[in-house]
Every structure is written in structure tokens, then in C-alpha cells.
Task: inverse folding
């Protein structure tokens, strides 16, 4: 567990610098997603909330996450976009970072209007079995990649979850983002969640 004092100290420094050096049109947060802070149920969402307060009202916020994150819809109540690494080991971290930066610029310019849907499943699986080099995890990642290849400007996040953190948003989560098409985002999120639920025993 991270102490509340440590969390407030480091986040306070970040927000203070944003206020001092701004105003900014956007912010990119490099996060993990499985942080545990005493007294803060959803620390990544709290980070996004405070960064939002430090930016100009129309500013955009994008973030990258580890697939072992424990996330739900709360983060995207305060941020605009999230991009999750898809592989374990995490050899696409650089790719997702580039994607987040590129889409942040597009959103700031008004070329992309993020519409997001989050679907959480009651599945907890041990991290030592989440290798994406074999089924069922390789099949799950491939399904997300197929949707992204099929639909332009659609992004699918698969949070495997981190079961060792005693947090309220623990477990598997799907997030889908489209360019202003919430109906498509809902359809893809349901498809991903239904597939995972059918394979939950695996």
C-alpha cells in the first residue's frame, strides 16, 4: 500500500507544476492502473480529477495503462482517453504511448471526439497465468486487435486485472473508444465481455 502522505506529496507536486507552467491544452498521464493508496479507493481516477482541475476547462487528458490495471468507468469521468498495453510481457508499451500522444493531439485539434464505454466483469485471475503467448489470453487480445483493424478510429482496452490489490475496482475490465459513436462502442464492449465470460473457466 502507498501511504496517503506519499500520494498527496507527489500528486501535489505534479498539480502545482501544472498550474505554475500552464495553461495547457492537454495532458498525457503515464499510469499503471493497479495502484493501492490508503484512503483513496480509485487513485488513478483521483489523479485525473486533480489534473483536470489544474488545466483549462476545454483541455484534453489521455493516459496509458498496464494491462494488469484495476480500472472501471471512474477514470474516464475525469479523463478523455485511455490506452492499455495489450501484451504480457508488455512489449507494446512504446506503441501505446505513441498512440496516446497522437490521439491526444487529434482531440485537442477537434479531429477526434472520444466516446467511451466501460464494461466490467466479475473475473479475477492470477497474474502468473495471464501470459498472452497462448490461449485464452492470446485469443482475447487477438479479438481486440481484430475490432481495431475492422473499425477505423476504434480502440479496445483489455484490463486483465491485478488480483493482489484489495481495491473496489479489481478484476477484468473492457473499455472501448470511438470517434463520436457510442453505439458502436457499446456493441464492441458487449462482444468482448461476452466472449470473455464464455471463456471464464479457461
Result:
Amino acid at each position: 500500500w502507498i501511504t496517503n502522505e506519499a500520494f498527496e506529496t507527489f500528486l501535489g507536486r505534479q498539480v502545482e507544476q501544472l498550474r505554475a507552467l500552464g495553461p495547457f491544452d492537454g495532458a498525457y498521464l503515464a499510469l499503471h492502473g493497479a495502484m493501492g493508496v490508503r484512503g483513496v479507493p480509485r487513485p488513478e481516477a483521483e489523479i485525473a480529477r486533480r489534473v483536470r482541475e489544474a488545466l483549462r476547462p476545454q483541455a484534453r487528458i489521455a493516459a496509458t495503462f498496464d494491462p494488469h490495471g484495476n480500472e472501471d468507468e471512474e477514470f474516464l469521468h475525469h479523463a478523455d482517453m485511455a490506452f492499455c498495453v495489450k501484451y504480457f510481457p508488455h512489449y507494446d508499451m512504446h506503441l501505446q504511448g505513441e498512440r496516446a500522444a497522437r490521439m491526444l493531439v487529434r482531440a485537442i485539434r477537434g479531429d477526434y471526439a472520444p466516446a467511451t464505454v466501460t464494461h466490467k466483469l466479475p473475473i479475477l485471475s492470477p497474474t502468473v497465468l495471464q501470459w498472452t503467448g497462448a490461449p485464452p489470453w492470446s485469443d482475447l487480445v487477438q479479438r481486440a486487435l481484430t475490432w481495431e483493424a475492422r473499425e477505423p478510429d476504434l480502440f479496445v482496452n483489455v484490463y486483465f486485472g491485478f488480483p493482489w490489490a484489495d481495491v473496489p475496482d479489481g478484476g477484468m475490465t473492457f473499455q472501448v473508444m470511438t470517434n463520436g459513436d457510442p453505439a458502436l462502442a457499446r456493441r464492441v464492449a458487449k462482444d468482448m465481455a461476452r466472449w470473455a465470460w464464455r471463456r471464464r473457466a479457461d
About this structure: The two ends are 30 Å apart (CA to CA). The mean pLDDT is 96. The helical segments are 4-21, 43-54, 75-78, 93-109, 137-150, 182-198.
